[in-house]
Amino acid sequence: MLTGGTRLGRRLRLPGHAHLLLSLIFLSALFPVVTPPVAAQEWSAPRTVFVPETGHTADGYFLDVWRSQRSLMGDPISQELTPRTGFLADSAGNEIIQYFQNLALVYLPTAPAGEQVASLPLGFEALTEALESRPTAVVEQAARRTACPPGETTACQGFADTGHTLRGDFLSFWNTGDAGRWLGPPVSEAFRAADRSIVQYLERGALRQRVAGSVELMPLGLSTAQRQNISTEPMVQPADVPVVNEELFAPPAAPAPALPAPEQALEESVPSGWWVGGFGPGPQQGSWKEIVISISHQALWAYEGSEMVMSTYVSTGTGNVPETVTPIGHWSILSKYDVQDMEGTISDEYYFVEDVPNVMYFDNLGNAIHGAYWHNNFGTPMSHGCVNLPLDIAAWMYAWAPIGTGVSVIP
Predict the structure, then answer these.
(1) From the CA atom positions of the chain, what is the Rg in Å?
(2) How far apart are CA 301 and CA 281, in angstroms?
(3) Where are the domains of the chain?
């Protein structure tokens, strides 16, 4: 096996769909980069949990979002499914959806890292159905475009994109925490329903306030799943999945390290298993397939589930200037090219490299994992920011990793 690589520079020509992905307005920075201490590397929080209140599981990205927004979303009332809705034009219909009591989440594998989870427009769909089936005069009136009164800036907020407003207690609820980000803008005005409660539809949910009561979310996730004949029957807890408990996500206290003998100090400074051929740092994102790259070790590990299936030395960015830094963070493979010419200018120096093989871009700044035929110095930073692989490893990884595969770059 070869041992080194150089990623040559920033690509000047991004594929067309990368610009589309940049226009997405969903989440940003859902998953901050966290570098655990060495002593905690052998511990990892569960990536799947069982929720006994509804008899369903939550895992991966959905688990992370649900834990932070449980009071808003409610508990999961379905398992994950792939309905092939074509939520994004370039997604090939391979999104993953899960319904919760109040909202529904969609995983978009081709979206940039940090923007791969969004909430579905259940409120807009519910309003559309109400207007198309048996609309009442009060609902039709609520669907008409409205603006805040002139000069009103505290108790009323207008949304030009939808032509509707939020007022009073509904506005206060929408501004609490991340509610506005997950519920989206209003698509109707508030109106009095048949049960005398006040109801208002938002793009991705619906709010209700009963007489003399507080604002609450309507269970649109449950009603939509039932209307679409999606199974909400509780399941039996899988034997290998723990019941959700926040204590599961708290790392154990690390024992005070013993002072190593001088001859042991160098050996013990390397985290256990962090060598080529060892298990490595382990999966960081919880996706089924994940590539993990360590800058300090100049090494890469590939995982399927909890199994390490390949490891190799690599060459990441030299970091001489900001343009040659390999970015640390959680990403995913956005596009792939069997072979591609690369060119760019860094520090007023132009470069051009023909026929770079097995190119897999993992961010929208031109950073990619690819093969390198122009050097054999893997294990040492050599590139302009990309991750260089030996040619045989690059070919294997190109075949193994589909678009959407998680890519984590750690220190």
Answers:
(1) 25
(2) 8
(3) 122-217, 272-410
How far is 179 from 72, CA to CA, in rounded Å?
Answer: 7
d(C-alpha 279, C-alpha 307), whole Å = 8
Contact between residue 193 and residue 203 where contact means Cβ atoms under 8 Å apart:
no
Per-residue pLDDT of the chain (411 residues; tens, 9 = 90+): 333 333 333 333 333 333 333 333 333 333 333 344 434 345 678 889 999 999 999 998 899 999 999 999 999 999 999 875 555 444 455 678 999 999 999 988 777 777 788 999 999 999 999 999 888 999 999 999 999 988 877 789 999 999 999 999 999 999 999 999 999 999 999 999 988 999 999 999 999 998 878 999 999 999 999 999 999 999 999 998 999 998 888 887 766 555 444 444 434 444 656 778 788 899 999 888 999 999 999 999 999 988 999 999 999 998 888 888 999 999 999 999 999 998 888 877 888 889 999 999 999 888 999 999 998 888 899 998 999 999 999 999 999 999 999 999 999
Residue type, 70: R
What is the identity of the amino acid at 79? Q
The single-letter DSSP state of residue 124 is H
Rounded CA separation 53/95 (Å): 26
Q: How many CA atoms lie within 13 A of 163 on its CB side?
A: 5
Supply 73's token pair.
């979303």
DSSP state, 71?
Answer: H
Give the integer Cα–Cα distance in Å for 325 and 152.
49
User: What class, spelled out in words, does domain 272-410 have in CATH?
Assistant: mainly beta
> Measured between alpha carbons, how far is 207 from 325 in angstroms, rounded to an integer?
46
**385/409 Cα distance (integer angstroms):** 12
What's CA 48's distance to the chain center, in Å?
A: 16
> What distance in Å separates the CA atoms of residue 302 and residue 395, rounded to the nearest whole number?
14
